[in-house]
Amino acid sequence: MDLTRIDVSRNARRFYRMEIVPGLFGEWSLIREWGRIGQPGQVRVDWYDTEAAAKDARFDIQMQKAKRGYE
């Protein structure tokens, strides 16, 4: 899932990317990358016991980002 926020008045062009990936031993990871569009971003990986837990976490983060103007 890719989100972007562009605010020309503040010269802010940001992206936020999330992906859910299965692990080798039945766990699931939520991989997040964020930064300025056109530049390499920072990456964070969070592990969850179930796919449902990872999807819930992704949804919560998506709602937080929507409040900050990401689409």
From TrEMBL:
<feature type="domain" description="WGR">
    <location>
        <begin position="1"/>
        <end position="71"/>
    </location>
</feature>
<dbReference type="InterPro" id="IPR049809">
    <property type="entry name" value="YehF/YfeS-like_WGR"/>
</dbReference>
<dbReference type="InterPro" id="IPR036930">
    <property type="entry name" value="WGR_dom_sf"/>
</dbReference>
<dbReference type="InterPro" id="IPR008893">
    <property type="entry name" value="WGR_domain"/>
</dbReference>
<dbReference type="Pfam" id="PF05406">
    <property type="entry name" value="WGR"/>
</dbReference>
<protein>
    <submittedName>
        <fullName>WGR domain-containing protein</fullName>
    </submittedName>
</protein>
